[in-house]
Amino acid sequence: MKAAITVKNKKKPRRLSQRLQSIGAVFLFFLVWEAVVRIANINEAFISTPSSAIAHLLFAQPDANYHWQKNISVTLYDFVLGFLFTAVGGTLIGILIGWSKTIQKAVMPLFVMFNSIPMVAIAPILLIWMGYGLKTNILIAFLASFFPMVINTSAGLASVEDDLLDLVRYLNGSKWQTFWKIRLPSALPYIFSGLKICTTLSVMGVIVGELIASDSGLGYVIVNAQLMMDTPPMFASLIMMSLLGWGMFLIVSIVERLAMPWAFKDEIQ
Amino acid sequence: MSDNNKLLSIRNLKKVYRTRDGELEALGSVTFDVNQQEFVSIVGPSGCGKTTLLKIIAGLLPKSEGEIIVNQDSFDPAREVGFVFQKPLLLHWRKVLDNVLLPIEILKLDRKKYVDRARELLNLVGLEGFEQRYPNELSGGMQQRVSIARALIHDPKLILMDEPFGALDAITREKMNLELLRIWSESKKTILFITHEISEAVFLGDRVIVLSARPSKMVGSYDIALERPRALSQKATPEFGEYTISIYQKLEVV
Lengths: 269, 254
Fold this sequence. Notes:
The complex is a heterodimer of chains A (about 270) and B (about 250). By secondary structure, chain A is an all-alpha fold. Chain A is built from ten helices and no strands. The two termini of chain A are about 20 Å apart. Chain B is built from nine helices and nine strands. Chain B has a nine-stranded mixed sheet, sandwiched between helices. The longest helix of chain B has 18 residues, at about 170-185. The model of chain B has no long low-confidence stretch (mean pLDDT about 90).
């Protein structure tokens, strides 16, 4: 007997319209922002219009401190390295913790303790130790974002259904096989949501480093522009930060789709 | 039947769980034999330790007392037992074909050699053409068929089935019963089938073993002399009714 089933086909049209909706919402936000500043005639020293912020980004600036290409690439570099470092390191620590209850009990309180200290407060000490620059910013990014990565990974590994483990156990499978074939794949959704949280936290970490002490980067632009009450570059910098976080979020989402094609299939009703 | 036809002898098997509130006797004392290629149904009320019994046989739980004697020199439970659980327990990140091949990977056998067999088994359970689908694209009944194919892939002698159709609706369940009998007669396996449904036990089994409520004792064993291949129409025969009624009586339902 062959069972006939119909898989509900609800794919392309809805996705396209959803995408248009998202783009439309962002566009609308900028439009309202621009309109409010212009209509209320707000002094640009308080709020820049998005158009002058974007213009600031697009046109070459005479002031060397506003060298956008350099500042963006410095922050991008720190951010990407910091994020990758956290993604790999946090996942590995999460696996270690998920693997052994003893390790979990030993290090969890420490992690919670560290995570409770605001990053802004640790950064100055790190700067004394390491001076400012790439290493410090990456370390700050890591400290700011490793916790959700660790928690999500270990929670994902623990989330596996006990019955699924029986499946391997009755065949005399090893702990290693259980890990590779059952635990890790079932933790993937958790790991990816950890990564998504990480993207924004890593941006924050890198920027905190740059705000406190640096000679370049988007955070540096903000500090520098603040002294001169020059708001367009400040807002330009904010827009770039959000683009960085958003871009990485998008990349993580794409990798997620590639890594877990099963999760994006339509379930039958 | 002669002794060399025996696959499994279970002698005074007991299971006691130690809990904080004291001891809980899950399995009183159970003794029965299972012959080669026999279909044995085990029926009993919920919580009577049926699942415990299967898990002990599969090596998933330690027994407290008693013996399981396997009448076979080379009987490695990991190799010779296929388990069909209550839930399909498919790995939803693996396609149907890869789910069926899971035991081969766990047993570290050569996967390539078993791909054709996996396809044959999927044909046998009526899932030809679904090899590359993901489990969540299949209905509950189809998922349970995949798990039956998976239990057969490493060619075990003994298939343990723990209320595999319990979650299905009555109509699908009847269909799956007929399917199972066909698969059983084609694959020539020994099946130990647990259910709480008396008519299902009688319809499927060569023999029905009746367990009482906890602490469970074996209260009866019935040879079911209904003709094979079984057909649904047999459920309307007086013989079928007599079997079910006497099992109901044994369980003191009527």
